[in-house]
Write the structure tokens for this entry.
Amino acid sequence: MRDNRPQSLDTLFEDEATVGKSPLQVIQKHAIALLKLNRAVLSLLPAQLHPWCRVANYRKQILVLEAGNASWMTRLRYEIPTLRSTLRSEILPSLSSIDIKINPSLMVKYDNNAQNIAKSSVEVSNNDNQDLPKRQLTHESAETIMMLAERSPKKLKRKLERLAALAGEGTSTAKNKR
């Protein structure tokens, strides 16, 4: 059972008597080891799995991997036998098993990247469509928008007037009719 009693902060920081044994140093060494292990595992996995998989922990001879969702976890399970044998022979001879957990935060990170990629592809396609004629606001539409602006609250009124101004000369005649 864990010791959940409060501890002094002095026990967390390094002093001369506990060089290399402070709890923060132990955590730091474990984190560095996990990062190195993550790099090694990713180098052994197919490239399609890289964004969807990472090493979560290695404890009691069990390697815990995280997958983005159930479908990626299934895909990762196909790779477990070769991954386990390679890790046992080259990096972790004491490895007994590999466990896979689902971590949806891996998917969230990718969804944000996918949205950025989609936005950039839309911008590229918009640049391709520069040869198409641009839409223009007709004078009649500008006058209708200005009449609507007269009966609107201030904030909306300003925006509608700016929209009507895009019609060019038609907005000045619409403004003069007020």
User: Anything to note?
Assistant: Residues 137-169 form one domain.
